[in-house]
Amino acid sequence: MRTVNPADDPKPHKRIIHLDMDAFYASVEIRDDPSLRGKPVIVAGRSPRSVVTTASYEARRFGVRSAMPVVEAVRRCPQGLLVEPRMGVYSKVSAEVMKILSDFSPLVEPLSLDEAFVDVSASELLFGPAPSIAAQMRERIRSELSLTASAGVASSKFVAKIASDLHKPDGLTVVAEGEEAAFLAPLPVERMWGVGPKAAARLHAHGIRTIGELAQASPSHLARVLSNSWGREIALLAKGLDPREVVVARAARSIGAEETFERDFTLVSELEPFILGQAARVAQRLLEERLVCRTVTLKVKFGDHKLVTRQAALSAAACDTLTLYEAARSLLTRIEGLERGVRLTGIQASALESEAREQRTLFQSAASDKRRLLEKTLLGVREKFGDGAVQQARMMERGKRR
Fold it and tell me: Is the four-CA dihedral 138, 141, 147, 152 of positive or negative sign?
C-alpha cells in the first residue's frame, strides 16, 4: 500500500458560481408594474438629496448609475421614471432567490440582496456539471420569480465574479479550469476588485493597463505602486489565484433604516416623525425575520456631514416600533448642536437573537407583550393591503414639515 504525501495530491476540484441579479430593484419594480417595461426606470427617493439605488438598463444608456445623486440622474435622463425603493419587498424577493440557490448547494454566501457565491463542487454528482447547475438556477429564477440573473462559473470566487459581469444582462460565462489567467489577461485593470480611478491612474502611469500586465508585474513593484499587503494580494488575483472558500451566510448582525432629508432640520419635534418612521421600518424587518434586538443605535448626520452616533441597551429584547422609537428619541435628546441643522437620521437594531430563543422573564411587562402583538397585527395588515395601509399619526406630520 503506497503512502500518499499530501504535497503530491492534486489541488481539489472546485467549482464556484457567482450569481448576480440583473438591475435587481428596478427589475422587481418592472415585474410588479408591467407598464414600466421598456422604460428608463430610476429607483431612488424623491428628495433632491437622494441617490440612485439602481436603474434599469434603459436608464443606464443615458449614464445613470447606482450611487449617483438623483438630481444628476434626472439631468442625464429627464424622461426617466422615478420609483421610490421598497426595501421590504426586495428583501423578501432576495430570500426567495437565496432559497433557490440553497436547493443546489448548502454552501451559499450572499454578498448583498442581489448577489451570492455558491460552491457547487460537491453538487455536480446530483445536478450535473457546474455550468448546467448555473443554467438551472437561472431558469428557476426566471420561471418562479419572473426575474433574470447573470452567472459566472469558475474555480475561484474572484474569477467567477469577474465572469458574471461580462455578459449582463441574462448571461452565463464559464471559465474552464486552467484557463483563469488567459481569461483575465485582456481585461482592463479597472475590473479588479478595489481598483478605483486613483489606483487605476497609478497603475496606468507605470504602464499597467490590463490584468495580464498586472499579473506579469513583480509583487515588490506592485507593493510600491499600491501598498505593501494589497500589492502582493492583487498580483495573485491577477493570475487567477484565489484560495478563499465560500463562507456560509450568518445571521444578520444588525438591521437599520435611515433617511436623508430635503432640507436640514434643527428641532427635536421636526425630527421625531422621521425617527418614528425609521423605527417602524426596522420593526417590520425584525418581525419578518422573527428577530428581537437588545440594542438601539441612533445615527445623526449634520449639514456639514459630521456624523454622531449614540447607543442604548434595552431593558428587555424588543421588536416593536414604539420601543425602538422611544429609545431613539431619548438618544436624540443627548445629542448637542441640533441647531446646526440635521440632514440625516437613522436607527439600527443590533444584539439580535431569534424570537423563539429569546429568554423571557417571569416579570416581563404586559405592556411589552401588547406592543409586540400590536406590531404583528399591523404587519399582517400591511402585507395584505400594502405598506401605506397603516401609519401612526405622528408619521403623517412629515408631509406638513417638509
Answer: negative
